[in-house]
Design the sequence.
């Protein structure tokens, strides 16, 4: 079964692999050959040679832009699949603990919350914070995190060490996150970076610049879609 990590690796191969180098190499080889033939054509004037060479290079640039377009489309399709899978992992609920474990937590948590929120009990604030710090179950930790906007305000009134309160909250969040969700969020960031990356190997520029010229190369690599629109493609 293909995982989103496999899909992300496939995208990296499309971007950083040698597929786009090989495909563009065929274009550059032909452009160089046709430009050389134009330059050696005795029937052409200097202006005629320059115009024909420009047309050959523009045709090659259009073909390169189409390679980039196809690569970009393949990359985006793969990333769409990967992102959907990653977001499913992030949004999936944590496994629920046993009924007994959940009942014990609910009873203790509700009791301490009542003492804190209703009776403004300073000792209950300390006990509740210690209780929270001992939680190791992701499902239960998520309940605490979701409720922290209520409990945190009252805890902040009684806990004299704000750094401890912040540290405890971050610890509970980390417990609720789980390793799988943390990894999924990192993958989501990586997907965003891959979407923004140039969709072909950067080495393509090394072949394009001396063959097509810096101007055409820059236009194609900077915005291949605009370049293709200008040329009616």
Sequence:
């Amino acid at each position: 079964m293909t995982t989103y990590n496999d899909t992300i690796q496939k995208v990296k191969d499309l971007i950083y692999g040698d597929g786009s180098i090989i495909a563009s190499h065929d274009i550059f080889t032909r452009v160089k050959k046709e430009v050389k033939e134009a330059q050696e054509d005795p029937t052409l004037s200097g202006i005629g040679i320059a115009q024909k060479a420009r047309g050959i290079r523009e045709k090659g640039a259009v073909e390169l832009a189409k390679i980039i377009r196809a690569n970009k489309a393949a990359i985006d399709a793969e990333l769409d699949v990967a992102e959907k899978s990653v977001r499913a992992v992030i949004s999936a609920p944590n496994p629920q603990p046993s009924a007994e474990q959940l009942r014990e937590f609910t009873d203790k948590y509700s009791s301490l919350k009542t003492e804190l929120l209703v009776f403004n009990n300073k000792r209950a604030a300390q006990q509740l914070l210690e209780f929270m710090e001992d939680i190791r179950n992701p499902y239960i930790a998520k309940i605490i995190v979701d409720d922290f906007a209520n409990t945190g305000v009252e805890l902040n009134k009684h806990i004299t060490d704000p750094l401890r309160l912040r540290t405890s909250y971050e610890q509970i969040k980390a417990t609720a996150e789980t390793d799988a969700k943390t990894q999924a969020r990192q993958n989501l960031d990586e997907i965003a970076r891959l979407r923004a990356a140039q969709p072909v190997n950067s080495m393509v520029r090394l072949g394009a610049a001396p063959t097509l010229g810096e101007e055409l190369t820059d236009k194609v690599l900077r915005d291949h879609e605009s370049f293709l629109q200008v040329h009616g493609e």
Notes: The mean pLDDT is 95. Residues 40 and 49 are 9 Å apart (CA to CA).
